[in-house]
Amino acid sequence: MTTNSAPRLAHREISTLPRSTRPLLLAGAFAGPLFYLSALVQMLTRPGFDIRIHPLSQLSTGDFGWIQILTFVLVGLGLICLAVGHRRVVTDGLGRAAIPVLITISGAGFIAAGLFPQDPANGFPLGVADGPAAETTWHAVVHMAAAIVAFTVLAVAAIIVLIRAIRERRASQRSGAASSRSRSSLPSPPTSPASRWRSRGSSPSDGAPRRPSPC
Q1: Is the dihedral of CA 184, 11, 35, 103 positive or negative?
Q2: CA spacing 20 to 30 A to 183: which of 122, 126, 157, 169?
């Protein structure tokens, strides 16, 4: 009973959230798939891009660089929405305050990485000389620093979420085991002689001598 009541309680709590919270969580859920889907489409369609040579940030350069810039910004906004939604849903336990802060920092890092693009280099976009950029611009430095911070704090938040999930699972298992022990320790209700005979597959008259019939 204890293990089954927790999901029902969580469902009731989510169903009573403000209507604005669900779109926030949905935006956060789409942030990751949007980033990789956009990068995959651009890798396959933009001439000269080679994932073995060019980082994904290189997609923010050239005539169609605005697509990757917009992707960075949208993903960052989605992460910030996720942080707000997580803060509303998770009100206790490990990481209830740290996880939203880390996700917000990651979202801000993605936005900064989009607003300050990488330098063209290594033959991309087409027409750029092979090899690294002759001189690294200040906005490329900001881009790299923001990307490092964004991915690092996002990984830390994921580790905290994993530890929280493991703890909750163990607590649920211990609670279920304690509930099973408490039910097994309860005294069983008394049984009547007739019920004991039925459980043995016989009746009280099976062992008694039968009277001959008058006919």
Answers
A1: negative
A2: 169
Length of the chain: 215
Rg of the chain over Cα atoms, rounded to whole angstroms, equals 32
Is residue 135 situated within a structural domain?
yes
Q: What is the DSSP string of 12-27?
A: HHHHTS-TTHHHHHHH
Spatial distance between the Cα atoms of 155 and 167, rounded to a whole number of angstroms: 19
The CA-atom distances, in angstroms, between 148 and each of 67, 81, 116, 154 are 21, 21, 14, 10
Query: Tens-digit pLDDT profile for the chain (215 aa)?
Result: 444 444 444 444 556 777 889 999 999 999 999 999 999 999 999 999 999 999 999 999 999 999 999 999 999 999 999 999 999 999 888 889 999 999 999 999 999 999 999 999 999 999 898 888 889 999 999 999 999 999 999 999 999 999 999 988 888 887 776 666 666 665 656 555 555 555 555 555 555 555 555 54
Domain-embedded: residue 11: no
Under 8 Å between Cβ of 107 and 83: yes
- Domain assignment present for residue 190? The answer is no
Nearest residue to 89 (alpha-carbon basis) of 77, 103, 76: 103
Domain ranges, residue 94: 17-182
Number of folded domains in the chain?
Answer: 1
Q: Is residue 87 part of a domain?
A: yes
Among 79, 47, 50, residue whose Cα is nearest residue 63: 47
